[in-house]
Design brief:
alpha/beta; 49% helix; globular
């Protein structure tokens, strides 16, 4: 049973110095460290690259150590999604300083559940107040004529050249290298111009939760749903998708797992649509890979 330290700060102007000070004893003992630098607390903890790697490598009985609760979760939705995952994997979660030190926040008892939910609500309120003050400050600055934000990496002329080159067959990463920007900058330019289209199989997805009218046209299909997608859909999926996952068979694969789901193909497509957030640039690499794997499985199952 190992200690695993998790560090996070919100912007590239911040540091993890205070967190490292609170966790100095564990760091000195050589505890494994996982980081999500410059990562907003609005991104769910399960969708962060550093924390996803921690979950992938953690074994049953390991303890996740954080300097304070806000480094890991800052909303009720986040902790409601996180706690079942920690409990199911047999992991512990402890804060190293303050009133919560010494309490296992992943403990599966009513008192801890209530305390963590109240704490998350307070942290969410605090974050929302910070956001509200920021919006008011931005509005005041704009009213005074100040120009806010970073200058765009590509001006209008260069953006038009990028779109033309993409439509001419140049790949996103090749364009990023050519213009010395990140691939997500190229994707943003293309999306603003409407140059990127979703895959064909997503264009014909059925309405969420609608059953197939003809069983012959929508046969039962058994597919392995990656664990990251299953955990995500248990929170955001509709009732039909959640029920299919709950009745599926969980298969352990090393530190990870999949859920073998037997359902109409339309339901697999609906699950794919409802987990599309895990395919976004803001999702962790592990989440994007899991979504790609499931996309390929659904596409292969299509007649």
């Amino acid at each position: 049973m190992a200690d695993r330290i998790y560090l996070r700060y919100s912007t590239d102007k911040q540091t993890d110095t205070r967190q490292r000070h609170a966790l100095a004893t564990l760091l000195g003992a050589g505890a494994l460290t996982y980081e999500d630098p410059a990562t907003s607390s609005r991104q769910l903890s399960l969708d962060r690259a550093g924390f996803a790697r921690l979950l992938h490598e953690a074994a049953v009985g390991d303890t996740i150590r954080i300097a304070d609760a806000a480094r890991l979760f800052r909303s009720v939705a986040d902790i409601l999604a996180l706690r079942p995952v920690l409990i199911r994997r047999g992991l512990h979660l402890r804060v190293e300083s303050g009133l919560l030190s010494g309490i296992d926040l992943a403990s599966d008892d009513p008192g801890t559940k209530m305390m963590v939910s109240v704490l998350a609500a307070v942290l969410e309120f605090q974050r929302d107040m910070i956001s509200e003050n920021t919006r008011q400050g931005v509005a005041a600055a704009e009213a005074s004529g100040k120009t806010l934000g970073r200058p765009t990496a590509l001006d209008a002329a260069l953006a038009a050249d990028v779109v033309d080159a993409y439509r001419g067959g140049i790949a996103v990463k090749a364009l990023a290298r050519q213009y010395h920007v990140a691939p997500k900058t190229i994707r943003r330019v293309l999306d603003n111009a409407g140059a990127r289209q979703p895959p064909d199989h997503l264009d014909t997805l059925p309405a969420t939760g609608e059953p197939a009218s003809d069983p012959a046209l929508d046969p039962q299909v058994t597919l392995d749903l990656p664990g990251l997608l299953a955990d995500h859909l248990r929170v955001v999926g509709d009732e039909t998708v959640r029920q299919a996952i709950d009745t599926g068979r969980t298969i352990r694969r090393g530190q990870g797992h999949t859920v073998r789901v037997t359902a109409p193909l339309d339901l697999h497509r609906a699950a794919l649509e409802q987990s599309v957030a895990l395919a976004a640039d803001t999702a962790s690499p592990a989440a994007r890979k899991a979504h790609r794997v499931y996309t390929a499985r659904v596409a292969t199952a299509c007649p």
